[in-house]
Design a protein that fits this description.
The protein is of the alpha+beta class. The chain is built from 15 helices and 14 strands.
Length: about 425
């Protein structure tokens, strides 16, 4: 038995070695029986976890004893949730009278995993497993009995189109015996966590609210969504071999919100790991992450001009403002800062010359799009010194190195 455990340990180490997430794995590997482990063995693992947590910069900041007293009391209260208003009314007993101190305390306990709180939300989740159970039952795990119940149409819409009906949220909330007044707070928290985004001005038979859930969507486009295309440009967002699903779906949620602000009646479409959305009446965007090939860590972005007349010659050209790139960069940076600080990414064009050489096939050589848009001539240069003609990119963003002609300006806010 010991030799089998050691063999499995060595196998795990080999699987981790040289992987892009290797630096995020903290060895040593501990082995103990889940059912018959001794207290000393479990304590050894707990001590190791505590030691790692103490290395985190914010853990080196002294925390007032009253913060810990507050935590001990709420953990023993048996309550699942609290509102910020309720918290403020109770803070006096711990001599916390300043709202800034309350926010700092809640953030500290959120960062260490004891509670769930997002500044700007009214709800404080005192038991993280409570929220996890609700969210998983709303958008991840489906009960077969419910799928076949009176809400079957709602579940089909969620499975096939990634559209969540408010009745499903209400039903799960009722099952978890949540307080009715806090239902809106739960929805608000899911929106602020970028798990869902509300579809504005829902024009349906029942007039009820609906939400997009990118992680629950159909795998294929229907015929109507395959719009005839004119000219197009393509670039990629490369995540250096590490793209968490949660980050991908949150990006799609953010871009869906942005698109629907521009035109409420034109809804984005989600299809598994692909998203199509509106820029303006002349352009659409497709974002796609294909996990079935070697580029599983990339999101391919295609901006194309719509071609309603299906012209084969003189096809419509892409002509947009570069603010869409600034917005994408700003969104990625905010998501990274909020949800995945260790994620690294570059938005750019693959160097065509490097791509052709097999000796560089494992090296991702991107020319950042921001650098291309600052080019004065026709060519950009990759980090290996290869020149690349980028005039088609410059023209698409109304940067014309060969002339003074400017296509109609499209403002993207």
């Amino acid at each position: 038995m010991v030799s089998r455990v050691k063999s499995k340990e060595n196998e795990l180490k080999q699987l981790i070695e040289f992987q892009p997430y290797e630096e995020q794995v903290r060895l040593t590997i501990y082995e103990f029986d889940n059912c018959h482990a001794q207290i000393e063995e479990v304590k050894e693992v707990q001590d190791r976890i505590d030691a790692i947590i103490k290395e985190v910069p914010y853990m080196k900041v002294p925390i007032p004893v009253k913060w810990n007293t507050f935590l001990c009391e709420i953990e023993g209260s048996g309550k699942n949730t609290w509102t910020v208003k309720e918290a403020l009314s109770e803070m006096g007993k711990w001599k916390i009278t300043d709202e800034d101190e309350l926010q700092n305390m809640l953030k500290s306990h959120h960062d260490t995993g004891h509670i769930i709180y997002h500044k700007g939300c009214e709800l404080i989740v005192l038991r993280p497993q409570f929220l996890n159970s609700i969210i998983s039952n709303i958008i991840t795990v489906f009960d077969d009995k419910k799928v076949g119940s009176k809400m079957s149409n709602h579940y089909k819409e969620l499975c096939n189109k990634g559209i969540l009906h408010i009745d499903i949220i209400k039903d799960v909330w009722k099952e978890h015996k949540g307080e009715g007044a806090q239902l809106e707070d739960i929805i608000d928290m899911m929106i602020k966590f970028d798990l869902i985004c509300e579809i504005p001005d829902t024009n349906t038979d029942d007039g009820e609210r609906r939400f997009f859930v990118p992680c629950r969507s159909s795998p294929t486009l229907n015929a109507k969504e395959n719009y005839p295309r004119g000219d197009e440009i393509e670039f990629i967002i490369d995540f250096y071999y590490f793209l968490p699903d949660g980050f991908l779906h949150r990006l799609y949620v953010r871009m869906a919100k942005w698109s629907m602000k521009r035109h409420e009646s034109l809804k984005p479409t989600f299809h598994c790991r692909q998203m199509n959305f509106f820029i303006d009446h002349d352009h659409r965007v497709v974002m796609n992450n294909d996990i079935d090939n070697k580029d599983y860590h990339q999101i391919k972005v295609t901006i194309f001009a719509v071609n309603p007349l299906k012209l084969q010659s003189n096809r419509p050209m892409v002509s947009i403002n570069e603010d869409i790139i600034h917005h994408l960069d700003k969104t990625l940076e905010d998501l990274k800062d909020r949800w995945a600080k260790r994620v690294k990414y570059t938005v750019g064009i693959l160097c065509s010359s490097c791509k052709e050489h097999e000796d560089k096939k494992d090296k991702i050589n991107l020319i950042p799009l921001e650098d291309i848009l600052r080019v004065k001539g026709k060519n950009a240069t990759c980090s290996d010194g290869c020149p690349m003609d980028v005039s088609h990119i410059l023209k698409a963003f109304n940067k014309h190195p060969e002339g003074t002609y400017k296509a109609p300006f499209v403002s993207i806010q």
